[in-house]
Amino acid sequence: MSDSAGFLPTGAVLMDPGRPAVLVTGATGYIGGRLVPRLLASGHRVRCLVRNPERLAGRNWPGVEIVRGDVSDPATLDPALEGVHQAYYLVHAMADKSPDFREQDLRQARTFAQACSRGHVRRILYLGGLGDPTRKRSHHLASRQEVGEALASAGVPVLEFRAAVIVGSGSASFEMIRHLTERLPVMVTPRWVNTRCQPIGIRDVLAYLLEALDHPDLSGIFEIGGRDVLDYRGMMLAYAEARGLHRIIVPMDVPFPRLSVHWVDLVTPVPKAVAGPLVDGMTTEVVVQDPRALSAFRVRPMAYREALALALQRLDEDNVETTWATGLAGGPEGMELGAHEGMLLERHHRHVKARPEAVFRACCALGGEAGWPAGNWLWQLRGLLDRLTGGLGMRRGRRHPRNLRVGDPVDFWRVEALEPGHLLRLRAEMKLPGHAWLQFQVRPEGAGSRLEQTAFFDPRGLTGLLYWYSVLPFHRFIFPGMVRALKRQAEAGM
């Protein structure tokens, strides 16, 4: 099975148009974004229900049917489920940064279940959370299991997989472990690092989800986990060993255990809204109690170190398919640039002695670990201010250091439009009194190219206007400097 998204692997089975459609919700997310190409490679007819189809515009998924809709809106669910025999439910309100994600998850699951019943869907496939329901569970894990019950409430059979930590490049749990281990030589941690867990590799999770379609009459709960049972301390030490790092972890009773959430928020790219439920879940033991999945499915899960090695390989190769931030809700959607009166803009342009492809490559390499070529410390300061006001800041980084596709996060921007070699438009997802975009256009000019960079701002009321004029002095330094830097990089043959 290929680990690359965006094309059908060699030897892929051609899709049979006569087969019933398989619906995938959450296709813009971490799991769904990896599952869809594997479904296509197996010859399935795939339909994706997404709130914002534009986020899938950069995916090369031949034959996929994309339907605009929302799992909380029955009016959009009914047409999306027409002709569907099996439906994957891979959405989670936590990704929307909702403070009441537990209640929102339940409402959405019940709405989806009722629509599946009306549409005569034969089965719902769901990925939930591992944890003994007879014992005290974290709110996060209890919510995941309650969603499974809500999906079954309308009488449609549900096949529910329950998993613990998913080990894969870009997953939120993995990124927490990775950054804590790499950035902190000595860690004084709460006692939850001694909680037992049975992590599972992302490849194995996808294999279970895919093989489930081969067992159309199978329903119920199946607990899935990797070959190893570890505590979180052991997982971090194994990561350190794989990276050749020496780390000291000291578990102890701390007076305010919730401070660990703020520490994760500070040290790792994972924001508090996501880290909170994850850390909460780490206080609950998540180990497979019922091994029936091993007899019902052909999947033979790998060991933790093997899954870890594969995740690190993907990171080292810059070959990360999806990340925790891929499906994270951000700013407003569906707004047309320039469609509103009162739009403020600042434009800069340069003639570049390089081919348009070279100029466009330089534009597509902005942000992430490479930073921003003019006033990077100001960008970082703006990201810090955004975090202090409840935003994501610069922590999301990039999926790939050079390649972009529509829907990709780039620090506190998201790729809204991408025309290879010609146009890149980023939409701001920071906290703002208005809506902002940063656009790059490249076209041939003489023996070289013309690079045009435009910052757009649609202010909201007087506060928006005051904000724009207050940051203009910084724009006068940042934006001209960025155009000059991109010109130099392109002419240097980047």
Automatic annotation (TrEMBL):
Entries under Gene3D superfamilies matching the protein: 3.30.530.20, NAD(P)-binding Rossmann-like Domain
Domain NAD(P)-binding: 26-145
Protein name: NAD(P)-dependent oxidoreductase
Transmembrane segments: none
PANTHER family, A to Z: NAD(P)-BINDING DOMAIN-CONTAINING PROTEIN-RELATED (PTHR48079:SF6), PROTEIN YEEZ (PTHR48079)
Highest taxon listed in the record's lineage: Bacteria
InterPro entries membership: DUF2867, NAD(P)-bd_dom, NAD(P)-bd_dom_sf, NAD(P)-dependent_oxidoreduct, START-like_dom_sf
